[in-house]
Amino acid sequence: MKTKKFALMAVVMSITFALFAQTPMDPVIAKFNDGAAKVNAGDFKNAILDFEEVIALAETVGASANDLKAKAQSQLPVLHYQVATAYMKQKKYEEAIPSLEKTVELAELYGNSIDNKTKALKYLPQLLTGVGSQKYKEQNLPEALKNFDEALKYDPSYAKAYLGKGLINADQFKEKDMLENLGKAIELSKLAGDTKTVELAQTRMGAYYTNLGNLDMADVDPEDADYSAPIASFEKAVSYNDAAADAYYMLAVIYNKTIEFDKAIENASNALKSETDATKIAAINYELGLAYVGNTEYTLACEAFNKALVGPFAEKAQSKKEKVPGCE
């Protein structure tokens, strides 16, 4: 009798163990449920970790776990986009970028979440360029350039990224690269009707050659003056930016020195079209007065010197004015 009782207990125990034995699918199901619970709670970062683990576990289980694996894969691009969106709402754009990149990467890898991929691709060039522009302001040029290049990887027609690259090229005196990138920024911005970016690119190109012209002027030998190099630089400046008032002004100065008064008048007049600074306007009018005197146009010379009676040019203009016939 005792023997039979022991045998019965053994059967019961074996059934109990069978009921509580874990199947290979159980950890996959449990981890998937953990991830789902975190999604419902809005804990997207940790839900991502759970679904990544679901995929890893499912791969060890095999075909029976393929359904849960596919569901986890469908969640990951969505969750990365949700994390990115949260960062963007907080204006933490640099932190949002990796999540947007992950959205695109996983959507392409798994062939799903097309809508989120499309939205991520829309934001990535903007955010990368914005972060790059901030890095540029901080003079962290390598990181800025890296961000601009990344932006163009996602959208090769994003004009503002070309603008950023061109600004860096100009600061580094890489003339060929500057012309290529700022030229591309202008071309694409014109097609998009983005006049602000066009203006910024043209202004920087003009400033580059104006600065180069000033350096050329510093190298001119006063005993044997040759102004061909600065003239070439200043003319490039105004060819790229027809509002490059400083370049027009310097051309007026040079042409007064070389006794080419018509050219001096033309360039001084062009400078006045866009200059807004009162002292610079006085300087331009002073050169204009000198050119009119050279052309014996005394009435116009008198008018120009009167307009030059401002700030540091007032004394010089008054002295010249007193020597102009008929000028009161």
Word description of this protein:
The protein is mainly α and about 325 residues long. Mean pLDDT is about 90; it is low at about 1-20. The radius of gyration is 36 Å and the shape is rod-shaped. The N and C termini lie far apart (about 140 Å). It is built from 16 helices and no strands. Among the domains are: about 15-140, Alpha Horseshoe (Serine Threonine Protein Phosphatase 5, Tetratricopeptide repeat), CATH 1.25.40; about 245-328, Serine Threonine Protein Phosphatase 5, Tetratricopeptide repeat (Alpha Horseshoe), CATH 1.25.40.10. Helix 2 (about 25-40) packs antiparallel against helix 3 and helix 13 (about 260-275) runs antiparallel to helix 14.
Biggest beta sheet summary: none
State the low-pLDDT regions, or none. Answer: 1-20
**Strand and helix order:** HHHHHHHHHHHHHHHH
DSSP summary: helix tally: 16
Net shape: rod-shaped
The proportion of residues forming helix, as a percent range, comes to over 70%
Number of strands: 0
Radius of gyration, Cα only, in angstroms? 36 Å
Structural class assignment: mainly alpha
CATH topology of the domain at 17-141: Serine Threonine Protein Phosphatase 5, Tetratricopeptide repeat
The portion of residues forming beta strands comes to under 5%
CATH class of the domain at 17-141: Mainly Alpha
What CATH architecture of the domain at 17-141 would you give?
Alpha Horseshoe
Mean pLDDT over all positions: 92
Gap from first CA to last CA: 141 Å
